[in-house]
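Internal ticket #5521
Category: modeling
Description: The requester needs a full-assembly model to guide mutagenesis choices. All entity lines are attached below as received. Residue total reported by intake: 638.
Assigned to: D.W.
Attached entities:
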Amino acid sequence: MLAFTLKRLGDLIPTLVGVSLLSFFVIRLVPGDPVMLLLGERGADPKVYREMKKELGLDRPVINQYGSFVLSTLKGDLGRSIISKRKVTEEFFGRFPATLELGLCALIFATLIGIPLGILAALKRNSFFDYFLMGGSLIGYSMPIFWWGLILIIIFSVGLGLTPVSGRIDVVYEIKTLTGFYLIDTLLDSELISDEGFAPFRSAINHLILPAIAMGTIPLAVLARMTRSSMLEVLGEDYIRTARAKGLPYKKVILVHALRNALIPIITVLGLMFGSIITGAILTETIFSWPGIGKWLVASINARDYPVIQGGVLFIATMVVVINLSVDFIYALVNPKMRQ
Amino acid sequence: MEKVEAQKTEEQFENPIKEFWDMFCQNKGAVIGLGIIVFFVLVALLAPLIAPYSPSELQANALRFPPAFLKGGDSRFFFGTDDVGRDLLSRLIYGARISMGVGFMVVFLSASVGTVLGLFAGYLGGKVDWFIMRFVDILMAFPSILLAIVVVSVMGPGLMNAVIAVAVVACPTFIRIVRASAMAERKKQYVMASKTFGASPMRIMFSEILPNCMAPLIVQISLGFSDGILNAAALGFLGLGAQAPTPEWGIMLADARAFISSDPWLVTLPGLCILLVVLGFNLFGDGLRDTLDPRLKK
């Protein structure tokens, strides 16, 4: 296990260096002069131009720039947004809870529906239900979620008038940020509860439902397919037959003996889904005007806010690397075969 | 007597292509997928012949007509018209050209680069492998759309840049698949034999090992089409891919968002096309995998 840990940690360093290089060069590879691009016509004033260039650190040799970029990143400073003038880290952590809340709800939705459906499909293998479900999951897996989100809006918001179209909560409510999760904050704020009761909480739920479904659809399809095949594999094992042969009830064999072993690869897949959750967030947040990381990054790209793009991208990529590594470690702890 | 023997061997060694086709046809999903692909390829190829109008032609006094089969529809415009009076059916037909073209370009770029790097990593091993795999790790650290956005933000929006961005995103999968097969093949006897005859590493990689890595590669090519088309459409939707007035399905969706409550078909139809094409390639790819890799069949 020690050798495995050291090897994986050793591989982590070049990856992180590469990730930092890639994020660093985003701003420098843009064709033309980024300062001119940012200033536009105002760039005509040489004084403003020089100041801007200095502010971005572009007046120094590239290697020095990269060195100070790495140093300040390690200190937790990712520079300031050109548009809002606020610190990139501040902006990131101000929005991250919104994305996390949405992502977690999407994953909970996907898990609660996907895993039971996968188990049922495996138990009723080759039945009509199985074919129907696997066909459905392939459609879900192929779903362009930017379209699926709009279709959900057409049906539930425009057609049935059940859910709001955009945002996290009705604008009439002022939410104090305690955890950043509106589902929790609306319940913790005693003042708000005494004034409005549970209406803000219900509003937060109503705003969350459609984006969570849109974002959870692909993970749901993946989980259902994975659970089915993992379950089928386990159900063919000798120990399942033994458990049945010694007279254990069918339900117990399925839920205790089979499911526990079938869940190992599924949990790994869930852990590795962080990356696709971010991809989902970029599209879902754009459709539902959800004030999270995804919408922020798209807006920054359209505004050419390079420090934000650089910092945001670096943040997310580092998180993906660290999470994937942790999943590997957990998997190696559970399954010794993986350590080789 | 001899004749009978000869006939027997012929029966035993059936034509491998026919055998493959028979197995493939048993998979209903795969056949449906192939049908969808063939349909959209034909639509793309014959676009100028079958489209009733040009995709950019503005119809006077025909703004946002509903489809012909709905109330208030006009039989001249089967799927209705968009907000500036262009025939939706014609735009969808020309959109098939763009999506199929994008899918082809993405797969061509990522599969060729991925195959070469994967063969190098898998066959040469050692430092080459280490460097290529760290490159893969770096690319895989970026969620797919995010990486594409980074590439587009460097090169600027546009259809060609979106294709390159999506191809970069698709590369790691090809590298990993070819590398894994190459590593398995490299220890086999035919490679050893080839080495003893003095074949160069290039020859061993490309004419000995590569043909034996084809099965997983072909499957991934089909799945690569679906990912490529989906990601390129997403970039178009975000305004970072093809630009208006290109009849690209992703942009058509984005443009139609403003009319989501009044004219839902403008949103519904382009997305349905994306879903169908992606589904077609996924069904086909799954079917190919089952047929080419009998080990997965239990």
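Resolution: model delivered.
Comment from assignee: Chain A has a mean pLDDT of 84.
Ticket closed.
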